[in-house]
Design goal:
This protein is an alpha+beta fold. It is 16% helix and 31% strand. α1 (70-85) runs antiparallel to α2 (177-195). The N and C termini lie far apart (58 Å).
C-alpha cells in the first residue's frame, strides 16, 4: 500500500504532495467594511408548513461607516416595505414579508453582537393581485435586479432577487421591455428614497454594494434582464405528491 504524508496545515501557499508542480494559494479571508444590511424575509404562498420562504435586501453605508439611530433605520425599513407592496415592483401578493431586520456587519460578514440592531415583525403583501390567488409563476422563479457602481469588475456589482414576479412572459421567453423598465424604475425609486437620509450630501448614508474585498461601492445604476431566474433551493424544498392516472393503460 502506498503511504503518503498528510498535506501541510499551513495557511499560506503550499505545494500539493501529489502535484508538486502546482502551488495552491491560501484561501482569501473575506473582509467587509462597516455597513448596515437591511433584509426582508417572508413566505411564498402555500398553507401551513408547505410555505416556501424568501429573503432579499440592500446594504447602506457612509464613507466612514454608518449611522444607526432608530429614526433613520425605521425610515429605511418603511421605504423597503413600500417598495415590496408597490405594484410597479411586480411582486405577487402571495409573497408576504413577515420580518424586516437591520444589522451592523462585522469584517467577517457576521452580525455585530450576534443580533440585528432592529427587527420588526410585519405582514406586507406584494403589490400585484390578491393573497390566495393562483401564482403567475412557480415559487422557485425570481427576478434578478442588478446593481451597478463605479467600481470595475465583479466586486463592484451586486444583485438581489424579487420573489414571485407577477409578470407575463412573451412567446420569446422574455419579459416585455415596458414591464422591465417599469420595475427597474421602481428599484431606482427605492434607492433614491433610501439615499434621502438627513445629513450633508458627502457624508449621508447611501445604498452600496458591500464587497468581501473591503469595498463599499455606491450604487449608481440599476439593470434588469428580461429573463426570469430559477432559485434551485426553493424547487428542491417543494413538497410534491405524485398523482396516478385514474385510467388504466390498455393491455
Amino acid at each position: 500500500m502506498l503511504s503518503l504524508s498528510s498535506p501541510p496545515t499551513a495557511t499560506g501557499p503550499f505545494t500539493d504532495p501529489l502535484r508538486s508542480h502546482v502551488t495552491t494559494p491560501a484561501r482569501r479571508t473575506p473582509t467587509y467594511r462597516p455597513h448596515l444590511r437591511f433584509t426582508l424575509s417572508g413566505t411564498l404562498g402555500g398553507v401551513g408548513s408547505a410555505f416556501e420562504v424568501f429573503s432579499y435586501g440592500l446594504c447602506m453605508a457612509q464613507p466612514d461607516g454608518f449611522q444607526q439611530d432608530a429614526d433613520f433605520i425605521n425610515d429605511a425599513m418603511n421605504d423597503l416595505l413600500a417598495f415590496h407592496s408597490r405594484p410597479a415592483s411586480a411582486i405577487q401578493a402571495n409573497a408576504r414579508v413577515r420580518k424586516i431586520t437591520c444589522a451592523a456587519i462585522n469584517p467577517d460578514g457576521s452580525w455585530t453582537g450576534g443580533k440585528p440592531l432592529l427587527e420588526r415583525v410585519v405582514d406586507v403583501a406584494g403589490g400585484v393581485g390578491s393573497a390566495g390567488s393562483n401564482l403567475v409563476h412557480p415559487p422557485q422563479i425570481a427576478w434578478a435586479m442588478s446593481l451597478m457602481t463605479a467600481t470595475p469588475g465583479a466586486r463592484g456589482r451586486g444583485r438581489f432577487y424579487l420573489p414571485l414576479p407577477a409578470v407575463p412572459v412573451l412567446p420569446t421567453g422574455l419579459v416585455g421591455t415596458t414591464q422591465t423598465q417599469e420595475t427597474a424604475t421602481s428599484v431606482v425609486t427605492l434607492i433614491n428614497a433610501l439615499n434621502n437620509s438627513p445629513g450633508v450630501d458627502t457624508n449621508r448614508m447611501h445604498v452600496v454594494v458591500a464587497s468581501s474585498y473591503g469595498l463599499n461601492s455606491v450604487v449608481t445604476g440599476v439593470r434588469v434582464g428580461q429573463v426570469l431566474d430559477t432559485i434551485r433551493t426553493r424547487r428542491n424544498a417543494l413538497l410534491e405528491a405524485y398523482v396516478q392516472s385514474a385510467t388504466a393503460v390498455a393491455p
